[in-house]
UniProtKB/TrEMBL annotation:
<dbReference type="InterPro" id="IPR006026">
    <property type="entry name" value="Peptidase_Metallo"/>
</dbReference>
<dbReference type="GO" id="GO:0008237">
    <property type="term" value="F:metallopeptidase activity"/>
</dbReference>
<feature type="domain" description="Peptidase metallopeptidase">
    <location>
        <begin position="34"/>
        <end position="184"/>
    </location>
</feature>
<dbReference type="GO" id="GO:0006508">
    <property type="term" value="P:proteolysis"/>
</dbReference>
<dbReference type="GO" id="GO:0008270">
    <property type="term" value="F:zinc ion binding"/>
</dbReference>
<dbReference type="InterPro" id="IPR024079">
    <property type="entry name" value="MetalloPept_cat_dom_sf"/>
</dbReference>
<protein>
    <recommendedName>
        <fullName>Peptidase metallopeptidase domain-containing protein</fullName>
    </recommendedName>
</protein>
């Protein structure tokens, strides 16, 4: 894919394939297409303006929320502007009612007419019914917008596909023709055109899911769908758009024994081990902004009624939810403005005798 100019690379990404076998490990290289990386300012964050050309406000809000995950690792700030500012927008999003997802690679979006979309997020109702799939697709397409290529198109020791099985598979599942499959799946990028080449990452958000039946050779015999930024995704984007050196790193371990770390953008799960127990999480907020903290029901767990209280470092209550305010079942939701500092989030069952497992996720909204 690196052989052609970036503007020729709208990258179709409708990866949603069933898998019967998973594997991981091995070596290869991947990274970002150097020619499409945004120029970093000498100081401060790279500011990328984003405009929605259409779409419902509620879906736009989801996109804003999930895209923030990249900001946690990179010195990048997405500024979501009103549509009247489309001429100033680096990323221009259209949301058609048909299932299709693609984005220009990095600065490729600046090489087309500013009135045209650079990213397509075609959320259909069935996709919107799966919150983690929505998140996966937003993270993946914003990865492209930052200049990241597909992980499976690594140039060095990557996946080799069986032909004609791979063409048959993508025709059957995506209606992609051979040319599209070659561009989006088979053709490796050129190593000399990549920045920050790194080991093949089976957990990358930039990887498609492939069943073993179409993989001929490679470090893995199949790949899975990944729903969050992997450790290596974070390291890669942090290296490409490094944070200013004055910004302190979060602590490796929580200061208080028994307090679980809750990192912005990283879901955490826990269980209530004994009736009436409360689970405390330590939350380090490094940047001021509006934050949303929400519990969720982990896969396979029973839906329970959770309540949450957020305390500041003086143990004063900042916010709480006892009403199950989340739009998802009986989960708890807190939305509030937070200043930088250390906070403690306490989660417990609504019923004093209640038990169960829950997940919790804190995100910066703006
Ligand atoms: Zn893609």
């Amino acid at each position: 894919m690196g052989a052609e100019p970036p503007s020729a690379f709208p990258a179709p990404c409708t990866a949603d394939f069933p898998l019967d076998e998973l594997a991981r490990g091995g070596q290869a290289r991947a990274g970002a297409l150097t020619s499409t990386l945004w120029d970093r300012p000498r100081r401060g964050a790279l500011q990328l303006n984003v405009v929605f050309l259409d779409g419902e406000a509620s879906v736009q809000a989801l996109v804003r929320q999930h895209a923030r995950a990249w900001e946690e690792s990179a010195n990048v700030r997405f500024n979501f502007l009103g549509i009247e500012r489309y001429a100033d927008a680096h990323i221009r999003i259209t949301m058609p009612p048909t299932r299709s997802f693609h984005s220009y690679l990095g600065t490729g979006s600046a090489q087309i007419d500013r009135r045209l979309p650079s990213m397509t997020l075609g959320f259909t109702d069935d996709v919107l019914a799966e919150p983690k799939e929505v998140r996966r697709l937003v993270l993946h397409e914003f990865g492209h917008a930052l200049g990241l290529i597909h992980e499976h198109q690594n140039p060095n020791g990557g996946l080799k596909f069986k032909e004609p099985e791979v063409f048959e598979y993508f025709w059957r599942t995506q209606r992609w023709d051979e040319r599209t499959v070659r561009e989006q799946v088979i053709r490796p990028a050129r190593a000399e055109e990549l920045s920050n080449a790194s080991k093949f990452d089976p957990d990358s958000i930039m990887l498609y899911a492939f069943p073993p039946s179409i993989i001929a050779a490679g470090p893995v015999s199949a790949t899975k769908l990944n729903y969050e930024l992997s450790e290596q995704d974070r390291r890669t984007i942090a290296a490409l758009y490094p944070k200013d050196p004055t910004v302190p790193s979060p602590p490796d371990r929580p200061e208080e024994t028994g307090v679980l770390p809750l990192r912005i953008g990283e879901p955490s799960t826990a269980s209530i081990p004994i009736r009436g127990a409360e689970i405390p999480f330590g939350l380090l907020v490094r940047e001021p902004g509006r934050y949303v903290i929400e519990t969720f029901t982990p896969e396979g767990a029973r839906e329970e009624f959770w309540v949450m209280t957020l305390l500041d470092s003086d143990r004063d209550v900042v916010a709480s939810d006892r009403e199950g305010s989340s739009p998802h079942g009986l989960n708890a939701r807190i939305e509030c403005d937070l200043e930088p500092g250390r906070y403690v989030l306490i989660v417990r069952h609504r019923l004093r005798a209640g038990l169960g497992s829950f997940g919790v996720l804190a995100l910066r909204k703006w």
